[in-house]
Amino acid sequence: MSTSVPNPPAEGAAEDGETLGREVASGDRPRGVSRRGLLGAAGAGVVGIGLGAAGMAVRNRQPAGSAEPSPIDRAYPFYGDHQGGIITPAQDRLHFAAFDVTTSSREELIGLLRDWTAAAARLTAGQDAGEIGATSGAYDAPPDDTGEAIGLPPSGLTITFGFGPSLFRARGKDRFGIADRQPAALRRLPHFPADNLDPTRSDGDLCIQACADDPQVAVHAVRNLARIAFGRAAVRWSQLGFGRTSSTSVSQTTPRNLFGFKDGTANLKAEESALLDQHVWVPAGADPAAGWLAGGSYLVARRINMTIETWDRQSLREQEAVIGRTKAEGAPLSGGEEFTEPDFAMLGRGELPLIPEDSHVAMVHPDNNDGAQMLRRGYNFVDGSNGLGRLDAGLFFIAYVVDPRTHFIPIQTKIGIGDAMSEYLQHTGSALFAVPPGVKQGEYVGQALFT
Ligand SMILES: C=CC1=C(C)c2cc3[nH]c(cc4nc(cc5[nH]c(cc1n2)c(C)c5CCC(=O)O)C(CCC(=O)O)=C4C)c(C)c3C=C
Ligand SMILES: [Fe+2]
Fold first, then answer.
1. FRET partner for 397 with CA separation of 20 to 30 A, picked from 67, 73, 247, 255?
2. Dyp-type peroxidase C-terminal domain: from which residue to which, for each copy (predicted)?
3. Environment class of residue 7 by beta-carbon count within 10 Å: exposed (0-12), middle (13-18) or buried (19+)?
4. In angstroms, what is the span from residue 361 Cα to ligand 1's centroid?
């Protein structure tokens, strides 16, 4: 029998639901009591409230007197105006998966989205994927949760769903009766200069971005969503990431990428709502065919291998010239500190710009790209080595943009040709997804596309 208890109260999908979170108790649990049972009990009863950037505390695992809850106790609401995992403060771990839909039935696709929504709401609250739980079901049936997250707290898990161009139309066929609702901007990304794409790491009908502060929690989420999809969708490719390479909130320190540089300094941040409206969220009326996407965004994913062995043999001077910022502070080479605006006109020795024109920062800065900004949310990856003694390492680049035609494609085209950093990079995977707006209680993700 299940040790089921009522679900925790639904998250107050606050206006700014994504930046608010809720900490749920974990702690050691006795054998035979489901993860869901404990967390449900916490949600039902032990609700202490303390709103902050992190959210509401249910039960704090921190030592008494500590003001900041541990990130692993944090739970972000699944329901809200926007999906979680976009402006949520970037967690430390990623499991990203792209799926091929294997059914041709529209009803089965909708059923999958319903099931994924229900499971994602449970998982992000720190519960088992299914209502019965990993160890409480019938002895002769497969459990409705795989079990590896038993005892683990929510860990700040967010689950973000996206729809690829091929969901709408493949080989000229309207697969699910939604071809006329395909956004004009949702097309397969073009081939960029210096791309060396692996088709088995590219594209997909659907995607799931699971971010958490515990890798096991992120992997558990994707694994269970893939299990639930059986017979309707299958994993096409997936990518693990560690060490966020961006900050998406002013409350976060800037992390470093595998080149050893601070990455995320000039990123769009959750607190910059006017800029997010301009550069990240798709406005109502943006595309007459795709009203369902209002309040959503576009997710660009690029698996970018970094030839770190070559990079590591470059002088510090060369490395800084390639990036356009100092390695220690992340300050622009034109001077100041990390958050000083770069001055691309400032000249140095030989009347040359202090920030080289082919440096990465000069290439991608909004001043040099018609003002386009993006919300970057990438992760480092190391997928073992390649058999030639080189690490298969790099940056799994994720960016959320209002329109890839204005906010990604022109910039990527430009840097593929002229960016000094390109010499050390190889793009090996590529995908674009439309990310529907947040889910309302009682609805499923992307519902407006099918109604
Ligand atoms: C097409 C968009 C971008 C790709 C692809 C990309 C890859 C990439 N970037 C780094 C390292 C850094 N990027 C930095 C800044 C930065 N990068 C992009 C865009 C792309 N990066 C933008 C829009 C910006 C912000 C520019 C600005 O407004 O000044 C930085 C500097 C620190 C920071 O501001 O975050 C670094 C370092 C790598 C290693 C990489 C591919 C592997
Ligand atoms: Fe960059």
1. 73
2. 254-440
3. middle
4. 7
